[in-house]
Amino acid sequence: MQTIQQQRAKYALEKVNQAATNPRISHKEYKSYASNLPAMIHMNGLGQAAAFFKSKGDTHGELYNLLSGWLCQQGQPYAGCANLLEGITTKDMHAYRLAQAEAQALMDWVKKFAKAFMTDGDDNQGGSGQ
C-alpha cells in the first residue's frame, strides 16, 4: 500500500509528464506558474487562486485541472464534486482547509517534477532538460 506522499508524487509525475508533451503548454510558463501557485494559495486562499487560474486558461488552466482532478477524486476533500470550484463553493470550511493543505502538498511535488522534467526553453520538447 502506498503512502499519501507516494500517491501525490505519482499523480504529480503523471500530470507533469502529460503537460511536458502537450504542444500547447510552454515549459517555461508551466514551471513559473507551478512555482507561484503555492504562494498565491497561501496569500489569497485556495478559492481565489483556483478561480484566477481557471479564468486564465491555457497553462494556468492546466494547473487548475491538475488540482481539481486530485482534490475531487475519491478520498480527497472534494470527492464527488465535478470540479474544484464546485467543491469550494458547496462544501464546508473544514473541507476547504483540508483541500488547501492538500493542494500545497501536491504542488510541492508538481514544482519538483516540473523543474526536473521540463526544459528551460520554450520549445516544449519535454524530457529531462539535458
Question: Could you explain the architecture of this structure?
Answer:
The protein has 6 helices and no strands. The C terminus is likely disordered. Helix 1 crosses helix 6, helix 2 packs antiparallel against helix 3 and helix 2 runs antiparallel to helix 6. The chain has a single domain, classed as Orthogonal Bundle (Peroxidase, domain 1). The longest helix is centred in the C-terminal third of the chain and has 25 residues. The protein is mostly helical and 130 residues long.
Give the CATH class.
Answer: Mainly Alpha
- Low-confidence stretches at least 5 residues in length (pLDDT < 50)? 125-130
User: Which overall shape is indicated by the principal axes computed on the Cα atoms?
Assistant: globular
CATH homology group:
AF1862-like domain
User: Helix segment count?
Assistant: 6
Largest sheet: none
The CATH architecture term is Orthogonal Bundle
- Cα-atom Rg, whole angstroms? 14 Å
User: Distance between the terminal alpha carbons, to the nearest Å?
Assistant: 34 Å
Structural class: mainly alpha
Mean pLDDT score, rounded?
93
Q: How many strand segments? A: 0
| Share of β-strand residues | under 5%
What is the total domain count? 1
Order of helices and strands: HHHHHH
What is the helix fraction of residues, given as a range?
over 70%
What CATH calls the topology is Peroxidase, domain 1
